[in-house]
Design a protein that fits this description.
By secondary structure, the chain is α+β, with helices and mostly antiparallel strands. It is built from three helices and eleven strands. Helix 2 packs antiparallel against helix 3. The longest helix has 24 residues.
Length: about 270
């Protein structure tokens, strides 16, 4: 099955998608070259060329699978972090998913409100670089209400002018009349300032994360892959904004994988 799928993909030679891949590749190379010049000291980091390769690989894979169903829209989010004690922290978020494009609809382009997530996480700092937490998500969709419980573990490494982060999540999703959905998620991220050795108020930074999801539902398994290259701006010590594409490829183990690209806009507030 996998060999047949690869063989089928290699037959896709649409010149429009080839030109699109060439343009996207040049765009990513120019962008990373500008970042490289703005931050000369970043040349010594190993993850920088790896990040470039990862983004280009993502664009190439998306182009090869361009005939699969796709959808796009915007994903605004507000995240409020409250420090309860030196080791306990509470995170509250509200996220709204709004669709603008869906290839499966008769009218591909058109606005459609999909859902809103209300998210609450409590985390405990186990060591200087590690945290464990538990969370609950209430999803309000147009025709149903969904509940999700999550357990998470994060650890990070902070260098002189960069930060590497890792997150492992196990969650269960429950809704009336539907079998539970279990997911095992792993995400790793890179973050570095575009000027200087640290992000100061009024400065930009770049953050990219790559996430893999294993999905288990009613005896079936599936996988999802996400890539988020975001540009951030620190307004002050308590407020920052991040924005960029949130690309997702789901149904990887199914016969018809689907592409989704949300434009994420996240406002972080620290209390």
């Amino acid at each position: 099955m996998g060999i047949q799928r690869i063989s089928h993909l290699t037959e896709i030679t649409d010149p429009i998608f080839s030109e699109g891949l060439s343009f996207c590749t040049r765009f990513v190379q120019v962008f990373l070259r500008l970042v490289h010049k703005a931050k000369p000291k970043m040349r010594s980091l190993i993850f920088f060329p790896s990040l470039s390769s990862l983004i280009i690989l993502c664009l190439a894979g998306a182009t090869l699978l361009a005939q699969a169903p796709y959808r796009a829209g915007i994903l605004p989010r507000v995240n409020v972090s409250t420090t309860l004690s030196p080791r306990w922290k509470l995170n509250t978020a509200v996220e709204s998913r709004q669709q603008l494009v869906n290839s499966r609809n008769e009218d591909t382009f058109g606005y459609q409100y999909l859902l809103t997530d209300a998210i609450q996480f409590a985390s405990f700092q186990t060591t200087a670089h590690q945290q464990a937490g538990i969370g609950y998500t209430l999803r309000l969709a147009s025709e149903t209400t969904i509940h999700r419980l999550s357990l998470l573990y994060t650890f990070n490494h902070k260098g002189r002018n960069y930060r590497l982060g890792h997150r492992i999540v196990w969650d269960g999703t429950f809704s009336h009349g539907q079998p539970p959905v279990w997911r095992l998620r792993y995400r790793h991220s890179w973050e570095f300032p575009l000027n200087g050795d640290a992000v100061d108020p009024g400065e930009f930074y770049f953050k990219a994360s790559n996430e893999y999801l294993g999905i288990f539902e009613a005896g079936t398994t599936d996988m999802e892959w996400r890539l988020l290259p975001f540009l951030g701006f620190e307004i002050n010590d308590n407020h920052k904004i991040e924005t960029g594409p949130d690309y997702r490829l789901d149904g990887i183990l199914q016969s018809a994988p689907r592409h989704t690209c949300w434009w994420g806009i996240v406002w972080f507030v620290a209390l």
